[in-house]
Design a protein that fits this description.
The protein has 819 residues and is α+β, with helices and mostly antiparallel strands. The protein is 36% helix and 18% strand. The protein is built from 26 helices and 31 strands. Strands 10, 11, 12, 13, 14, 15 and 16 form a 7-stranded mixed β-sheet that branches. A hairpin with a 2-residue loop joins strand 28 and strand 29. The longest helix is centred in the C-terminal third of the chain and has 23 residues. The radius of gyration is 36 Å and the shape is globular. The structure holds ligand ANZ. Ligand ANZ binds next to strand 11 and strand 15.
């Protein structure tokens, strides 16, 4: 009998499938489509471990199932290969980023192929390929032309010793993480995408997406729409005013002081002479604190009095104006009215500096000096007794009449900083002309090729290493033809990944990023599968780009990913996170070389627990899935080995054949149901149970119902195919098929076989009628006998007697002959 040896069959089928282009998909099909995609990976040089494999296995099992269900399935793969991981790897290993990417993607592809994932490799894309990034540049220019890409000075952390820009995370307590010197903020010209112009649509359209609530709420918080009012406070003795943003205009009578952010332009103007020194030194200190640190609620509040006063527009009260860093310059108006009775941070500040606290919202008994909720107004003049909602509306409209307030909306989200002063990215296709300013590179000159340079270490002066290459830098202005310079910044990798899912619809198009027909046919992505790590950036940026494309008339849909499915992490066997640095990663390659085979790994990835929950990896469990496959193998090989003549003559009434059918139809129904809602683990568990049932039937029947067994085994292999494609294919062909199992239709079940039938059997003792019993079908003599012997009316007749013979007329009569 043929032995199960994954090392033999897996490479064989892999080659065959590749040669036959088994998983390539055509665009112009009349069939309904299904687009299944996993986040495209950035191959960083570290091998894929069993945690990554879970992601792709979920996508693949679902893609294979959908294909067998008759859908036209697009299941593509590509490389997100620009960006820091490749560049850092290259700097570390001394080879160029290009070579590093080619090496790493080669390894990654080999690992994916080995796992038997059914990608349409003819659609492979690589974001660092000029044929791809030409269109990333084209989209940049589309945004530019629509007024959605702009350049602006922005304050960046700067280390004067290392002469380098630092990311927020690289500043620790105001010091450079590398050399420990005091950092500064420096204005550098940066490119931004105006994602804020789409804030409302990005927020509102979330409602219709089939995504987890957790991710949707992270996006909502990130966008952070807040409705409130801008209220103006005149500055006492000056014609200036301070505009504050507040979500609680109902608490206006409780405002006891005003605060300006240290960077606020009014600070300079209003500070009194005797306060100037303390204010200046406070402002300088605040400069080096990050926004996150400044907003920390638990932090001891700091601030200084400016010497000036504002006037509360509701009651003419004079309020001292303070400068404090918990107020941020880049939110709202950079100034607040402080209401210490009803806002925690204001409360802390008032306590720290002995400022008055006036309660204006009636608090419940337990509030103890601070109540942040809403309620009935007190100490608020003519507004007393109104509730917060009424008071808010009334106060804002009363003040609006004098031009002292207006309702406004604010967002936490900022425009997307897209430029990077690094080498390994798509060059920003702009030419700077002294006369014409920033001029787009004409379409016909795209792509702006990333030149090969020898020194791609960051320069640290705020310019990308591309500025080293004079050849690259020098250009003529597309408008006036005069001497000009190319933009040397490259785009953040998130730009490349904001549209790749569209390119898969039309990957080889050299006239356009894609044609509308193809994009409209394939997209939106029906199932987008990945870890929870992209809750905001990528998933928000892609939504933004798609909306811009819709507005431009390039596509007819407004959301890229209809359903988002976030799989749970695979942890190391001890429950810790798998990572290269902890040396606890488990890679499929080593499991395969131990002899397990990709099929058992795939099964284990899905069987190990619900797909969306974190689970510890368990190599012993892998032994279990291997043995399960081995059992299917044996069942099939035994069936093939038994010669029809050796099988016993049928002795039963056909109920074994019926039972075989019922077992399989029950399995088809269960597995189909589970697959359609990602119930992979329960589907595998049910398959295991089914195989146990088949083994029991095999013992009884010894494959005598050959045709029925053939059908049952074929159905079993079809149900197995999405999980374990190699073994399913091998056994399928052993059963005599020449077409691939992966081109076969998913089996259907016959509901009528699943209803429980019973028959009534007459029970006799020594030929005399004693009872009738109902038994479920299919049934055997043993089962009927057991039921009969347990019947209350029969028991007394059999008590203390020996049954010498049993006469059974199938499904009709059973007679016990006793002594
Ligand atoms: C008075 C007030 C009274 C406030 C009260 C809250 C409670 P969200 O919801 O996040 O938009 N604020 C406004 N601009 C700020 C800035 N630049 N830096 C720090 N804090 C700022 O929060 C809006 C609230 O945060 C505003 O409403 C303001 O405090 C504060 F019982 O005004 B509130």
């Amino acid at each position: 009998m043929k032995r199960y040896n994954p090392k033999e069959i897996e490479p064989k089928w892999r080659e065959r499938w590749e040669k036959d282009q088994l998983y390539s998909v055509s665009d112009d099909s009349a069939l309904p489509k299904c687009y299944v995609a996993e986040y495209f990976p950035y191959p960083s040089g570290t091998a894929m471990h069993v945690g990554h494999v879970r992601n792709y296995t979920i996508g693949d099992a679902f893609a294979r199932y959908s294909r067998m269900k008759g859908l036209n399935v697009l299941h593509p793969m590509g490389w997100d290969a620009f960006g820091l991981p490749a560049e850092n790897y290259a700097i570390k290993t001394g080879i160029s980023p290009r070579q590093a990417v080619d090496k790493n993607t080669g390894k990654f592809k080999q690992q994916l192929m080995q796992m038997g994932f059914s990608y349409d490799w003819s659609r492979l894309i690589d974001s660092t390929d000029p044929a791809y990034y030409r269109w990333t540049q084209w989209f940049f220019l589309l945004l530019f032309k629509r007024g959605l890409a702009y350049q602006q000075d922005s304050l960046q952390w700067w280390c004067p010793v290392d002469k380098t820009v630092l990311a927020n995370e690289q500043v620790e307590n105001g010091k450079c993480w590398r050399c420990g010197s005091d950092v500064e903020k420096k204005a550098l010209k940066q490119w931004f995408f105006k994602i804020t112009a789409y804030a409302d649509r990005l927020l509102d359209d979330l409602n219709d997406l089939d995504w987890s609530e957790a991710i949707k709420s992270m996006q909502r918080n990130w966008i952070g729409r807040s409705s409130g009012a801008q209220v103006s406070f005149k500055i006492d003795g000056s014609d200036q005013q301070i505009d504050v943003y507040t979500t609680r205009p109902d608490t206006l009578f409780g405002a006891t002081f005003l605060i300006l952010a240290p960077e606020h332009p009014l600070v300079e103007l209003i500070t009194s002479d005797d306060q100037r020194d303390v204010v200046n030194s406070y402002v300088k200190q605040a400069e080096v604190r990050s926004d996150i640190e400044r907003q920390e609620t638990k932090r001891q509040k700091t601030g200084v009095f400016s010497g000036a006063y504002g006037v509360n527009p509701v009651n003419g009260q004079k309020l001292p104006i303070w400068v404090a860093d918990y107020v941020l310059m880049n939110y709202g108006t950079g100034a607040i009215m402080a209401v210490p009775a009803h806002d925690e941070r204001d409360h802390d500040f008032a306590e720290a500096f002995n400022l008055p606290i006036i309660e204006v919202i009636k608090a419940p008994e337990a509030a103890d000096g601070l109540y942040e909720g809403e309620g009935l107004l007190i100490n608020s003049g003519k507004y007393d007794g109104l509730n917060s909602t009424e008071a808010r509306q009334k106060m804002v409209s009363d003040l609006a009449a004098d031009g002292a307030a207006q309702a406004t909306t604010n967002y936490k989200m900022r425009d997307w900083l897209i430029s990077r002063q690094r080498y390994w990215g798509a060059p920003i296709p702009i030419i700077h002309c002294p006369k014409d300013g920033s001029v787009p590179v004409p379409d016909k000159d795209l792509p702006v090729l990333l030149p090969e340079i020898s020194d791609y270490q960051p320069r640290g002066d705020g310019q990308s290493p591309l500025a080293n290459s004079l050849e690259f830098l020098k250009a003529s202005c597309p408008t006036c033809g005069g001497p000009a310079e190319r933009e040397t910044d490259t785009m953040d990798g998130f730009a490349c990944s904001s549209w790749y899912f569209l390119r898969f619809a039309d990957p080889h198009n050299d006239q356009a990023a894609f044609t509308k027909d193809k994009a409209d046919y394939w997209l939106p992505v029906d199932y987008y599968i990945g870890g929870p790590e992209h809750a905001v950036m990528h998933l928000l940026y892609a939504r933004f780009w798609v909306k811009v494309m819709f507005d431009e008339g390039l596509i007819n849909f407004q959301e890229p990913f209809k359903r988002l499915r976030n799989q749970g992490m695979i942890l190391a066997p001890d429950g810790s996170k798998m990572s290269k640095s902890k040396h606890n990663t488990i890679e499929p390659d080593s499991l395969i070389s131990q002899g397990y085979g990709a099929d058992s790994i795939r099964l284990m990835e899905l069987f190990i627990g619900p797909w969306d929950q974190a689970t510890n990896w368990n190599t012993e469990g892998l032994g279990g899935t291997y043995r399960f496959l081995q059992r299917i193998w044996t069942l099939t090989q035994e069936f093939l080995a038994v010669k029809p003549a050796e099988t016993p003559a049928e002795t039963d009434d056909g109920s074994l054949a019926l039972e075989l059918k019922r077992v399989m139809h029950r399995a088809i129904k269960r597995v189909s149901g589970d697959m359609s809602d990602f119930g992979f683990n329960t589907a595998v568990a049910f398959l295991m149970e089914t195989v146990n049932e088949l083994y029991k039937l095999k013992v009884k029947d010894n494959y005598s119902h050959r045709q029925e067994w053939l059908v049952a085994l074929e159905q079993l292999l079809c149900l197995l195919a999405p999980f374990a494609p190699y073994i399913a294919e091998e056994l399928w062909q052993d059963l005599g098929h020449t077409e691939s199992i992966h081109k076969t239709a998913w089996p259907e079940w016959d509901e009528s076989l699943l209803t429980e039938y019973t028959v009534t059997v007459v029970v006799q003792v020594n030929g005399k009628l004693r009872a009738e019993v109902n038994v479920p079908l299919p049934t055997s003599q043993d089962e009927v006998a057991t039921a009969a012997q347990a019947n209350e009316k029969v028991i007394p007749y059999l008590k203390d007697k020996t049954v010498t013979r049993v006469v059974y007329v199938p499904q009709k009569l059973i007679n016990f002959v006793i002594k």
